[in-house]
Design a protein that fits this description.
This protein is an alpha+beta fold. Helices cover 35% and strands 22% of the residues. A hairpin with a 2-residue loop joins strand 10 and strand 11.
C-alpha cells in the first residue's frame, strides 16, 4: 500500500459530502454568503427541488474579477482573521463554493458596488474556467445546475422533489426570521412564489409573516440576560401549540442553529403546560461573546457548542417560565376562533338543555353579600371532599401530607356587597351560569369566558403541590439494603456531579468502589420503584443532555396525577360562591390557563366576536 496525495477535485468532492448534503444545504450556504455581503434583497429560484436549478441573486457588495477567481478555491475567505475565537459572520470556512463546483455546474456572475461592468466564472464538476466579462447588476448571482451530476451516487439518496422544495423553503424561512430587514423572494417552476417583504426592526412582524398572523396575538416577548448572555425573542402561549417541533426557531449571534441543548431547554420550560405529543412555538435569539460559543463544530455550521451549557439552559428555562407566569394565562386566540367556527347558522339547542347554579335564562343572578376572593393552601375550600387517589401508596400520600400547608379558608370580599358589574371587572369576570355540570360561563366587561371547572381546579391543586415540592428537601425512604448498581466509570462520575441536586429530590447516592453506585434512599412519594432503572436512566440523560431532570419530572408527574384525582370533578354542580372563588384563584395562579395535560382551562369570546355571529358588526 502506498500513500498518495489526492487530487484537488477529489478533495473538494469529499468536502462536498460534509458541506452539501442536499439542495437545501447549498441554498443555505449561498444565502449566508449573500447576507455576509450586505444584501438587502435576496431572490432564490429553484427547479425540481433545487436538483436541476438553484439560483440565488443578491444586491450585496459584489466581487471584483480577482476576488471571483479566489472565491472558488478552498479555504479562501474574506470573513476570517487569524483566529476562530471571534467569528462574526455566517460563513468563514471558505468551502461552500468550491464544494458546490466540484459536484455541480456552477456559474458565478458578480459586479462590485461602483463598478461599471461585471465578471463571470464557471466551474463544472471541479473544472475551473477563466474569468470573463459579463453583464451584471450590482451584486452577485450564483447559479447551480444539475447538482450532484459529478457524484451520481448522491442523487440516489435525495428525497422527492416536493420534499427537497420544502427543505429549501424552511431554510429561507429561518433566514428570513433571523434578518427581518432583508427582503426575501422564493420562486421557481416547482413552487408558488413566496415573498417576505422587509419589516425593518419589527422582528415580530417578520415572525408573523413566516409563522402566520396568529402568532402575533399569541406570543409573549422575552428579554433576559445573565452573565453576559442575552436572550430575546418570543414564546408562544402553551395553548398555542403544534404537532411537531418545526415551529421552534433558535439563533445564536444571528446564526440559525438546530442545537439539541436549546431544544431541550424549550421542552423543559414548557413541561406540564403542553399536551403530550404537542410542541410549543418559540423564536429565541441568543447573543453572547463569540469566544464563548464554538460554531465550528460541523462543516454545516448548524450545531454550536457553548462554553457554559448550564448557564444558557438556565437562562432559557427561567426566562420562558417567568414570561409564562407573567403573561401566559390568557387563552389562545385560536381557541376562540375554533369555537366561532363551530357555530353554524340554523343551529337549535335541544329542549333538554339545563342551566344551573348561577342563573337561568329567565332570572337574573343575585349574589350573596360576601364573596370568596382568595385562598392559601393545597386545596381550595370549595373543593368537594374526594376519596384517596387510587393507585398511590400510603407512603406517597403521607409524603405529600407532610408537605401540605394549612387548609384553605374563604375570606370575605373587601367592601361588602359585590355586584355582577364589579366582578365583571376582573379578567375572568363574574360567574353567570353552569352548563352540563362542568362548564362555568362568566361575564367580563367586553365578552364572556367559558371555564372547564375540572381542568381549572386540577391546575390550581397541582400548582400548590409543585410549590410544596420546591424549597426544601423532599421526604425519602431509606433502603434496608442499599441497592448497588454497576455502571461505567464515566457514568458514575456524571451521577456524582449531580448528587447534591438529586439528594434534594430524595435520592441519596454515593460511590461504592470503582464502577459502582450505591443507592441508600429513594423519594418517598414514588413508593415502590425500580431504583436501578431510575439511576441508569439518569446516567443516560446526563450523558446526552448534561441534566438530571428525569427524577423531578417523575415527581411532578405524581403530583399532576394526584391533583387530577383530588380536584373538583366534572358533573358536580357548584354554587355561585364556589364558581366565583374558582375564577378569582385562577387569576392569582401562574399557569392556570391550561391544565396539567396542557389543554386550555378556559376559552374567551369577545363581545365583537359574538356580535359578528349575529351579523351585528
Amino acid at each position: 500500500m502506498f500513500i498518495k496525495q489526492l487530487s484537488e477535485t477529489l478533495i473538494n468532492q469529499i468536502a462536498a459530502g460534509e458541506v452539501i448534503e442536499r439542495p437545501a444545504s447549498a441554498a443555505k450556504e449561498l444565502i449566508e454568503n449573500a447576507i455576509d455581503a450586505g444584501a438587502t434583497r435576496i431572490e432564490v429560484a429553484t427547479a425540481a427541488g433545487g436538483k436541476t436549478l438553484l439560483r440565488v441573486i443578491d444586491n450585496g457588495c459584489g466581487m471584483a474579477p480577482e476576488d471571483l477567481e479566489l472565491s472558488i478555491r478552498r479555504h479562501c475567505t474574506s470573513k476570517l482573521s487569524e483566529t476562530l475565537f471571534d467569528i462574526r459572520s455566517l460563513g468563514f470556512r471558505g468551502e461552500a463554493l468550491p464544494s458546490i463546483g466540484s459536484v455541480a455546474k456552477l456559474t458565478i456572475t458578480s459586479r462590485p458596488t461602483g463598478a461599471t461592468s461585471g465578471s463571470e466564472i464557471a466551474v463544472v464538476g471541479g473544472k475551473v474556467g477563466s474569468v470573463r466579462p459579463a453583464p451584471s447588476n450590482p451584486g452577485t448571482t450564483v447559479e447551480v445546475r444539475d447538482l450532484f451530476f459529478a457524484t451520481p451516487a448522491r442523487l440516489k439518496f435525495l428525497k422527492t422533489d416536493k420534499a427537497e422544495t420544502a427543505a429549501i423553503t424552511e431554510i429561507v424561512k429561518r433566514m428570513a426570521i433571523a434578518f427581518p430587514a432583508i427582503r426575501f423572494v422564493l420562486s421557481g417552476t416547482d413552487r408558488s412564489t413566496l415573498e417576505f417583504p422587509s419589516t425593518g426592526d419589527d422582528h415580530l412582524a417578520r415572525i408573523a409573516q413566516v409563522l402566520g398572523a396568529d402568532f402575533r396575538d399569541n406570543a409573549i416577548e422575552l428579554d433576559a440576560e445573565r452573565e453576559g448572555v442575552a436572550l430575546s425573542g418570543f414564546a408562544g402561549l402553551p395553548t398555542f401549540n403544534r404537532g411537531n417541533s418545526a415551529h421552534q426557531y433558535a439563533f445564536v449571534n444571528g446564526r440559525p442553529v438546530q442545537d439539541k441543548q436549546i431544544l431541550s431547554a424549550i421542552r423543559g420550560a414548557y413541561a406540564e403546560t403542553v399536551p403530550h405529543g404537542r410542541y410549543p412555538v418559540a423564536v429565541l435569539s441568543l447573543k453572547l461573546d463569540p469566544a464563548l460559543v464554538d460554531v465550528n463544530v460541523h462543516p454545516a455550521k448548524s450545531d454550536v457548542r457553548f462554553r457554559d451549557t448550564q448557564l444558557v439552559r438556565g437562562l432559557i428555562v427561567g426566562a420562558i417560565r417567568q414570561a409564562l407566569q407573567r403573561d401566559g394565562d390568557r387563552a389562545a386566540t385560536t381557541g376562540a376562533g375554533g369555537m366561532l367556527r363551530a357555530f353554524r347558522p340554523g343551529f337549535s339547542p335541544p329542549p333538554s338543555t339545563t342551566w344551573t347554579a348561577a342563573t337561568s335564562p329567565s332570572r337574573p343572578l343575585a349574589l350573596p353579600t360576601s364573596t370568596v376572593h382568595g385562598f392559601a393552601g393545597t386545596a381550595p375550600a370549595y373543593a368537594a371532599p374526594s376519596p384517596s387517589p387510587s393507585g398511590f401508596s400510603e407512603a406517597t400520600q403521607a409524603a405529600f401530607a407532610s408537605l401540605a400547608e394549612p387548609a384553605a379558608r374563604a375570606e370575605p370580599a373587601p367592601g361588602g356587597n359585590a355586584t355582577v358589574e364589579a366582578l365583571a371587572s376582573y379578567p375572568l369576570g363574574a360567574a353567570r351560569a353552569q352548563v352540563h355540570a362542568n362548564y362555568i360561563v362568566a361575564q367580563t366587561q367586553d365578552g364572556l369566558v367559558i371555564v372547564d371547572q375540572h381542568a381549572a381546579h386540577e391546575r390550581l391543586v397541582y400548582e400548590q403541590m409543585r410549590k410544596a415540592l420546591t424549597g426544601r428537601r423532599l421526604p425519602s425512604q431509606g433502603l434496608l439494603i442499599p441497592e448497588i448498581i454497576d455502571l461505567p466509570e464515566e457514568d458514575c462520575d456524571r451521577l456524582m456531579s449531580h448528587a447534591e441536586g438529586l439528594e434534594q429530590l430524595g435520592l441519596a447516592i454515593e460511590r461504592f468502589g470503582p464502577g459502582a453506585i450505591a443507592v441508600r434512599e429513594t423519594p418517598a412519594m414514588l413508593g415502590e420503584m425500580d431504583a436501578v432503572k431510575l439511576v441508569r436512566d439518569l446516567a443516560d440523560e446526563i450523558a446526552e443532555w448534561d441534566t438530571a431532570d428525569r427524577l423531578s419530572v417523575k415527581l411532578e408527574h405524581v403530583a399532576a396525577t394526584m391533583a387530577c384525582h383530588g380536584s373538583v370533578r366534572s358533573g358536580r354542580q357548584l354554587r355561585v360562591e364556589e364558581m366565583n372563588a374558582l375564577l378569582r384563584q385562577m387569576e392569582q395562579t401562574p399557569g392556570s390557563g391550561q391544565c396539567n395535560h396542557g389543554r386550555p382551562t378556559y376559552v374567551e369570546l369577545k363581545l365583537s366576536d359574538i356580535e359578528r355571529l349575529f351579523g351585528r358588526s
